[in-house]
Batch of 2 targets.
Target 1
Amino acid sequence: MNAPRPLATTAGRIALDQVSIRVGHGNDAFTTVEDITLNIAPGEFVCLLGPSGCGKSTLLGALAGHLTPASGTLQVDGANVAGPSPERSLVFQHHTLFPWRRVIDNVAFGLKMRGIQRAERHTAAQELLALVGLAGFEQRYPSQLSGGMQQRVEIARVLIGQPRVLLMDEPFGALDALTRLKMQQLLLDVWARFRTTVVFVTHDIDEALFLADRILVMSPRPGRIVEDLRLPFERPRDAALSTSADFIALKRHCLALLHHDTPVPPLPRLTPLGGPDVRTLQFAI
Amino acid sequence: MRALRLNPAAWVLPAASLLASVLLWHLLATYKPHLGLVTFANAPSPREVWEAGQDLVQSPKLLFHLGHSLYRVFAGFAAAAIAGIALGLAIGRFGWARGTLLPPLEVLRPIPAVAWIPLSVLLFPSSEASMIFITFVGALFPILLATIHGVEGVDARLIASARSLGARRWRVFTEVVVPGAAPAIVTGLAIGMGTCWFCLVTAEMISGQFGIGYYTWESYTLQNYANIVVGMLLIGVLGMGSSALIRALGRLAMPWQGATR
């Protein structure tokens, strides 16, 4: 397939300088990540690994432009992040496809927002759907697809905007184990063509080790980076990697990092939108 | 609907329930029991109502009654749908609209349609317009509240995704908020259609010579008990039918709802 204008791997540099993020309002506000300084090179595949509630998702939300840091600067290619943009697309754990749009129109949505003609955007959407293995499903509604297929559509939908940075918040966390392995392989195949910078949040050590060039291990809340780990594994990778001696040694190392002596009460999962979402309706019918 | 056609067993229980209701009515009207709080001494029997219904169906008045009522209900409903959806979308989406528009509407909401009669007679020079206004009042609030609920219920993640994909304020509204609220709006419209018929008798009490509500009210003043029940049942059936029509139109407009694997 012809990727529509492959990106130069010079775009997608991420720079965080002493970033802290607070979510919630008034007395309920709390710091999720504290004083994070970090550089990610263009085209790098980075996994943020940490326990639930450590703020990895809020960090992703800030990169996507849905949350504003309380302090510090957050830049992509030298420009401060201000609000959401198709250059920094976010994939959630559960798909956010529009239930009222057919698969092809979901994928083409970003092009529609740029004012591109219907025929042209459908051609581009069709190519991307073929790339993620969903040729023939164009006319389905999202509710007519399995969870894995929905996430493939979601990936196609963000890739159509040719993002410099692809942000993924446990995108395969809700899938069964086999589907998840397939999706990891698919993501690596797609990434091999698009070479965009990827920041991938997960709490699954195997997933991080299989996917990433580099793993940033985070502490419990308020989240800080406790280890910056560069993975020596060659690409392309396949399932055999996960049984190699190096892989297991690194897995043991990560487990040790994530093991904390003082028991931390399990924290609720945060969302890139600053949740746990407690939205109350004003009145009932 | 399809489930009913495929599965005749699904018909049996509702049909039996309706038959049993008519039978209970027949027994009460025949034996005219005094139950202390309530007495059936003057209740018309199903047979009398059936005969009164036959008379009405054969008289040329029925078409006039139906025509006038349908016109009032649909005019009031259309106005309520436009106002309710527009106000509901604005109130649900924009803080300033909620702050300015919602408080007066909340005060007006508990006022029953019948309480609006004197004011609507004063406000509207034609009695036709005041009757349409009463049905409008009846339908407005269910549609308004359902629309507000629908807008508030739109998944924040969908809005975030649309913005990430390059949608600006107005496109977020038309591409995500409106279709996201659509199922709730259709529910509100179906309920509002029901309350329109609910308010019809109230509206047609104002004046007029035609209309199902007027017919029911006139039958009461003439102590024509069987005709009252004919009017009541006619309103019930028409209300049910027009609500079902709204739901069917809603399904046509939202093909993604109920789309299955």
Target 2
Amino acid sequence: MKVETLVVPAATAPARRRWGLPLALLLIAVLPLLLPQFQVTLFNYIGLSSLVCMGLVLLTGIGGLTSFGQAAFVGIAAYLSAWLGTAYGVSPWLTLPLALIVTALTAWSGSLLTLRLSGHYLPLGTLAWGISVYYLFGNLEFLGGHGGLSGIPSLELFGFELREPSSWFWLIWSIVLLSVLAIRHLLDSRPGRAIRALKGGVVMAESCGVDTRHYKTAIFILAALLAALSGWLYAHMQRFVNPTPFGIHAGIEYLFMIVVGGAGYVWGALLGAALITLLKTQLQDWLPLLFGQSGNFEGIVFGVLIIVVLLCARDGLWPALCRWWPWRRAAGITVVPPAEPLPLQPKPARGEPLLDVAAARKEFGGLVAVRDMDFRIAAGEIVGLLGPNGAGKSTMFNLISGVLDATSGEIRFRGERIDQLPSREILARGIGRTFQHVRLIPEMSVLENVAIGAHSRLQVGIGAAMLRLDREAEARLRHEAARQIERVGLAEDMHRPAGSLSLGQQRIVEIARALATDPLLLLLDEPAAGLRHLEKQALAEVLDRLRGEGMSVLIVEHDMDFVMNLVDRLVVMEFGQKLAEGLPLEIQNNPAVLEAYLGGVE
Amino acid sequence: MTFDIAILLTQDGLTNGALYALLALALVLVFAVTRVIFIPQGDFVVLGALTLASLQAGHLPPTLYLLLALGGAVGLIDAVACLRSGRAHAVGRVLLIELGYPLALWALCHWLLPLSQSLWLHALLTLAIVVPLGPSLYRLVFQPLAQSSVLVLLIAAIAVHFALVGLNLLGFGPEGVRTAAFSDAVFEIGSMFIASQNLWIVLVSAVLIVALYLFFERALYGKALLATAFNRTGARLVGISPDLAGRLSFAVAALVGTVAGILMGPITTLYYDSGFLIGLKGFVGAIVGGLASYPLAAGGALLVGLLESGSAFYASAFKEVIVFTLIIPVLLWRSLKSHDRGSEE
């Protein structure tokens, strides 16, 4: 095993970080002393919105779960702290943990319900929840109804009461800065990659061993906690709460902020919050003058602005801004340093029975897609599952990989039944897979994509990742990913975004990702489909190398020429049934196979 | 609760439910054809009612300016598209249609308003002004985004809603409006009193639903819409333009919204921003039908109407809380039904 340092040119410059943090600290320290009071106050509001938006970026932009209900979480924390403070005189420093706990519990119980909602039902559910909570605030007597609660105690910090906007500025922006750091740390870690993998689809993430349910719940709660923090600060800074800033329009506004700023970027949250907040105050001054009457006309501008952003800069303004930034793109060298290798599963001896498919059957209603298939794979063997389009190969593949449950029959892996197990459990037993339609996260680098594969081989919690306590584990994961990328011959492209690679290379990245799961058996779903001749050659070379290393592989393919020279044995399917099985040469001359493939030789 | 009150609440619930059902059908249609979750559906209700009210007050409705502005924008975009594709001769025709229609309508309103106070005339003018806004919005906002995800389209729909609410406020002011009733007659059946406006609402809703049914079953354009809803790519392959289908479905949605507004105007005070909640209630109905089944959507909408009038009686302050909390178990049921380990969007 090679454990030397891998040195590869990269597109990102690591030097940038060194002065970023001191500069941010300096700005936070100095700005409130330089700016007039009302602008400091404005910045405070931007900071409060930024907190909510960062959670939303994590939840919606990165995790792919759209929520219109974040304002409700802001409101729950604000109202809880306000009510306890005014009615019972509880100190804000006691209500803070309480507000966080209550919000986390609300988000958790909400997530039990809403995270089961698929696709567009989730945003609609959060919309309804946002409306309900708003009316609840407005109609509960003890929360002051629509009039709200006033006389909320201010904050005291080290004996000083926070009264001036500038002292609030220091507190709010320190919290914003810490949150930015924590989220950026999180995204650049094992749990962060799992969260980013959610967008690639549940099937992909689960096949890499990611517990998607767990991470969806986690980002839902994290986003709610950031919102709650913002709400708690708001209540004590404003010293007055009413239902309006927690209504559904506020919830939609937060979403607008990240759409404008850039939903997939932490900095996009800050940019969006700043732009929309500044725009709103300007518009509230100017539009009534322009139209000669008072009212909330900024909706017109916001609506049009959002539509223009969606039409012209779909990913928001932050990535557009980055393209203009000249010194971000300086070429640097990113090193993947050597690290202790990840634990390996004990490998079976060559020839030991691995996979045993016995009378497997899958019915969709009246259609029998797979009809009582039988075949076996031994360790170290490369088996091709061949058949014309529609023969049931992909269904058979999905039965083995756990995407579908078999109707009847048995599938055993090393003697253990796996036909009713979900794909994450099947991965855990040592079956890695690729996808016919490539499922990589295009904006993540090749290295990060492959590192998703190693997800289940080490444990790193979300908290540890945020606090940067995971660097040793992270180095091991990255090194493993780099090792697998080298193994398939893509070391040159390790730091490029996966989406910039050709289809053939992306297929190979998927193989590297599957290898990073430390599989005993590799399932390849039509790896050659849609590839050009040279790409097929490159793929064949990779597979040949794996064969040399003794990897057991099942290739599902309909391209007979491609598999002929690669496999030890072929299983041919037609109409869901096994048509033939044997050595490549036997299959090539099997009249039934020729009939199926060529429609009979006249 | 006495029998009388029960009857009253049921009547109220069914009347509103019929309107929500209309909206629910339009929402299902728009979603099926374009994948847009059409949040501004309720804004069309308000546009309809407020336009009618300003006609009844003898004013030129500000909606005309909106029509002119959107027509101008569509005309500009289409004209540029014509020039780019080398069809310069079509520019005149495009501009004539997009700008000529609102201007002609303007002249018509000017001429007819002082002459007649007929409700029917006003209603027809309202339809003529408001309905074309639907296809124009589709052309401007949703057609360029047609390939985007459902979520991008949803955000765009909400953006349109924000803009429309602001424009309503600008054009009509913050005061609530009630239009004149179609007739003030009240029927008495046994101990029941039935306001004729309620009958009108149920009747017109039923007629419109039947008309839509016939449109989809009999008319070629209706069938084209259904085909697009069923399979976008397939419809395109047999020569149905997805742009046309999109515009047509938005026209139907605008028509349904405007009619609902005209019907609702006399029984509910509508404000510039009332549309959101009205549309969302239609939505709850549509979601009961999984944004796919028309009969289930209509049934769900009736249920929402009844639930709303019931909760208005028992816990009026929590009316909205109850109606919108209902959506969550319904959503859950829908997504459990559609859930499969292998299926993904």
